[in-house]
Amino acid sequence: MSSGGSALIRLEKSPTPEDLRTVVRELIDWLKTPEQTSLRRAFAVWLGRVLLPRKLPGQRVPEVADLQEVDTMLTESVQEWTKQWQAKGWTKGWAKGMGAGRQEGEATLLQRLLHRRFGSLPGWVPERLHSADQATLESWGDRVLEAHTLDDVFRE
Description:
73% of the residues lie in helices and 0% in strands. It is an all-alpha fold and 156 residues long. The protein is globular.
């Protein structure tokens, strides 16, 4: 996995809960060092509060603070949820709903990551993030972990 930004995109584009689990497991392996604790937590909280509720309509998603908890929850719940969706005819709606809010979620996570990486952000950053197109967000997301300054992230 090349960066947190690419993981974010892969999570957003995961068509099935099994694909989500695969990316979560890759994140667990990629973010295993102690200095990455806050980034692991940021991903886990975003997954539990933003992505999973959007991808798993009608399901109660417990509060999670660690990527391992996300993996365990997905492992234990995925089969039951899939049966429920099929019974309710939600599988088509779930696929359609995956695209809804994608950019907003990416912009929000990228803002959190930038804040954690660089501290307090100037007011133009949230505005720029939330008005950016998909390709631009992906490009900035790929740069966030390697950038030395905030300007490095937003360079053209």
